Amino acid sequence: MSLKNRITDDMKSAMKAKDAMRLSAIRMLLAAVKQKEVDERVVVDDASLVSIIEKLAKQRKDSIAAFEQAERLDLANKERAELQILTEYLPPQLSEPEIQAVIQSIIAAAGTVTAADMGKLMAQAKAQLAGKADMSRVSALIKQALSQ
Fold first, then answer.
1. Pairwise CA distance, residues 3 & 43, whole Å
2. Is the pLDDT of residue 71 over 90?
């Protein structure tokens, strides 16, 4: 079953269960998918869907930080609930040692690297770790590895 079909089935289940928060979050996700399909005239596959979910999750994290800074805990809690629902559709995240192992293999394959090669290393890391790790964390780990 594709991820899009699973999300649609979960929407139907949320309707039957009258789970308004879950239904709202899933509808928001499906609206973003539909928007991408219409804008780019493509059918979204699982890889594209994961990138859409990651984008929406990042937006939720940013909103949580902004709402907490403004002391709007009611809105922050709503965003947290949406974030939790969105993360259910993301693939399992790699642990830090697993991410570091991938980074070390990328650096070893590249040979001698300097801080100027950061962009090339990030491109390779993104290709291997997209959807499996938070790319801001990957970036920090690459910088740390290059500084050693």
1. 13
2. yes
